[in-house]
């Protein structure tokens, strides 16, 4: 579903049926964090979801106020792979555990 900032995010939920106006981030809600629509503007999750659809990667979100962003609230993401049981440094790429399986395929000409 598209977020208020216009990007597609699998964790955004909006209910506008019959005059309702319910919007929430289900991933932030899962982690007990308060959501507001301004967070979607700078959130890295839509880009991560577009680049990597690994079913084993779990994202954990934290809302922070970094000094560099003039105390504007931002979403910070950490990722964990349930398959390799390790943290993922670059969620857009993944933990590379699954990528190594691709090299086992051979091209037969
Ligand atoms: S805060 Fe991030 S994860 Fe949550 S709905 Fe907005 S873009 Fe998606």
How would you portray this structure in words?
The protein has helices at 26-30, 38-42, 45-51, 99-102; strands at residues 12-15, 22-25, 57-64, 74-81, 86-88. It starts with 11 loop residues before the first strand and ends in a 7-residue tail after the last helix. The strands form two sheets. Strands 3-4-5 form a three-stranded antiparallel sheet. Strands 1-2 form a two-stranded antiparallel ribbon. The protein has four helices and five strands, in the order E-E-H-H-H-E-E-E-H. With 109 residues, the chain is an alpha+beta fold. Bound molecules: iron/sulfur cluster. The site of iron/sulfur cluster has 13 residues, from helix 1, helix 2 and helix 3.
Topology summary:
Layout: E1 12-15, E2 22-25, H1 26-30, H2 38-42, H3 45-51, E3 57-64, E4 74-81, E5 86-88, H4 99-102
Antiparallel strand pairs: 1-2, 3-4, 4-5
The chain binds iron/sulfur cluster (SF4).
- Structural class determined from secondary elements: alpha+beta
SS field, number of helical segments: 4
Low-pLDDT windows of residues: none
Distinct compounds present: iron/sulfur cluster
Main-sheet strand order equals 3-4-5
User: How much helicity do the residues have?
Assistant: 10-25%
Radius of gyration: 17 Å
What's the end-to-end separation, in Å?
43 Å
Described by the principal axes of the CA atoms, the overall outline is globular
**What string, H for helix and E for strand, traces the elements in order?**
EEHHHEEEH
Biggest sheet features: 3 strands, antiparallel
What average pLDDT do the residues reach? 90
> Strand content of the residues, in percent?
15-25%
């Amino acid at each position: 579903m598209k977020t208020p900032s216009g990007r597609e995010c699998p964790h955004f939920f909006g209910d506008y049926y019959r005059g309702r106006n319910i919007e929430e981030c289900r991933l932030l809600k899962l982690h007990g964090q308060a959501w507001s629509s301004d967070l979607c503007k700078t959130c890295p999750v839509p880009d991560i979801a577009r680049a990597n659809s690994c079913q084993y990667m779990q994202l954990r979100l934290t809302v922070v106020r970094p000094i560099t962003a003039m105390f504007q609230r931002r979403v910070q993401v950490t990722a964990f792979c349930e398959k390799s049981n390790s943290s993922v440094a670059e969620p857009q790429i993944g933990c590379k555990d699954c990528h190594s399986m691709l090299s086992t395929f051979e091209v037969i000409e």
